Amino acid sequence: MSRTRNLSTTCPCCAFLPDDLFLPSSVEERPSASSVLAPDDTTCTSMASSSSQILEVPSPSDAWRFLRQSAAEAGAGRVITIVDTHGHPQLEREGAGTGDGDTESSCPPNLSQVSVVCAVSPDDWQSTLNYAADPSRRDTTLPALGVHPWYLYPDLSSSYLSDLESLLVQHPRAIVGEIGLCKVAKFVRQYPADLGGKSTAMELQRTVFRDQFMLAAKLRRPVSVHCVQQHGVLIKLLKEIREGALKVQMQWKRAQKDTCKEEDALDNFDAQPAPKLADAFPTAIAMHSYTGTAHHVKELLAFEQSLVPTCTTRRNNARPSKKKQGIKEEECALIGQDIVPPLFYFGFSHTVNVAMCSSDKSRVQNIEAIRAVPMSRLLAESDVHSTANVKSGTAGAIAYLSAATSISLIDMADML
Known about the structure:
Blueprint: H1 19-22, H2 33-36, H3 60-74, E1 80-87, E2 111-118, H4 125-133, E3 141-145, H5 160-170, E4 175-182, H6 186-190, H7 197-219, E5 223-228, H8 231-259, H9 265-271, E6 285-287, H10 294-305, H11 322-325, H12 329-334, E7 344-349, H13 350-353, H14 360-372, E8 378-381, H15 390-405, H16 409-415
Parallel strand pairs: 1-2, 2-3, 3-4, 4-5, 5-6, 6-7, 7-8
Helix pairs in contact: 3-15, 5-7, 8-10, 10-14, 15-16
């Protein structure tokens, strides 16, 4: 997939736009297996019975080998850029020399990669920026800054939010992440009883998540969200934000009614546009290593649709009189309207969705969730903690999506 990069920037770690990563190539309908699989292409397809829905997924190192081979066989006429939308290689927690072949020399010239590198706490914000700014990768790596829900206690500074905003302003193409909600976070279980115990820990988590989420909205940045066993909490928070934004819109309408004469309403509309409902949310929300159900996917997409506005000039559910309002019908349709771009994306990784989801129930749930996601909203994530594993981790995620959708490995890589 061809991706536009903007290298003319004074911030070397912000070498290309976030849109390049969170907007996969547009695919309106999921292709059938017969339309995308070559007759001899059995790589990364399901090897288990359809009744069990349990897939045989290659290891990340095998997936990377398959992908390199497929790209080489495709030749220079087919340029492939694989996109890793979530990883932590700056932590270098896993040993190098894994045998995964993550070297530039092992890549065919028509195969390349771009990545999002996510911080987990204020302690690694600067190292994340430094990692992304390294001359060897600064035009293919985008930093993400945030506080992971596991790292809120005991060391989170009271100034973390203002510190985060300052860094994001300095790095205008950095996104926000990893942030989130996690019921199984270790600090939640260990939060001191004399400070309120688990309930207080979960409230702290919700507060920190909301603050960072709203900062992403304020700065118009995408956000990468960790959400484990907290889907109901997430939906509740999203609805609260939407209701707050609707109240702001109603206040704007009342102010317009009080200050504008009907005959010059359109002139004032240009000067004082209605608040956009979508602006209350980040520009894109990537659900990281998603472990929710297909129902949860549909619920989030339905919430997204609820942000599509309606005509704001109607009163008492009746069409306004054009003569009385001095507004043309087509202008009525535009006032207060907002073109709402895609909001939710769903990332899947071999690291979490295969290696850490070992039960048949969880694996079937993951596959059903993938199949509920529109193709244009799927993301591949390495979710690795070492530079040595980035390419193989990304290939492993692509192979997993390939198997779940019965789309060949190379075609899936091209779509993401």
